[in-house]
Model the fold of this input.
Amino acid sequence: MLKVVNLCKEFEKTVKTGRKTKKQEFLAVDHVCLEAKRGEIIGVLGPNGAGKTTLLRMLGNLMTPTEGEIHLYDKEEKEIEDIIKRKEAIGYLSGNTKLYPRFSIREYLTFLGQVYKMEQQEIEKRIEELVSMFSMEEFVDNRIDKLSTGQTQRASICRCLMSDPDLYILDEPTLGLDILSADTIINFMLEQKKAGKTILYSTHYLEEAEAICDRIYMICQGKIVAQGSPSYLMEATNSETLRTAFRRIYGKAMENN
Done:
């Protein structure tokens, strides 16, 4: 479904040396390689500033890589090269996702359906499916600026789902949600996995990642420092939990830098 080879993203930062400042280039994402197969939930874990969001933005076609290759395949395993088709195949969600506040959820999803050139009957059917999937019957016709955090997050995910993509890229989808709202998102990811979809997501909730991820990539200062299933990473670090494994892997990576 997705294959990434030696992906890099270079930025500039201001460095102060004495009384002078100068521009210095650095790699926020440093020669990252990863693979996500159909029907997998892939976790991207790392501390703040590790490069997770920059990586996901490049994979979602929202940011141009400085170097490297991103290969995205269709259901026949043929590479999708057309940029419009690539975007249609991806559902991207981040904490910076903005929705039109004066629209209701139904109005917003209808608008998206029209953008995707869906027939009106198809739009209405898809909206009803999403409303049922995320238990939004009570607030689907409420204005978005009147929704709670959890309700808004469900609306955001429905935005990603409207075109029924094959790959979901979710940047901290359960951040700040209560337990019930977070469970709704987690159950959604598990259901999409059963349907053969691919989910690539970042999270700081390591217990969540341990429970649902098939494989994990741990990133530190832009580099992949460990990868494998949660059980493999725990066994390799002699840890009882993924949280402990993360601390040990990250600590060793910082020592080596």
The two ends are 33 Å apart (CA to CA). The chain has nine helices and nine strands. The longest strand covers residues 20-36. The CA atoms of residues 84 and 181 lie 32 Å apart.
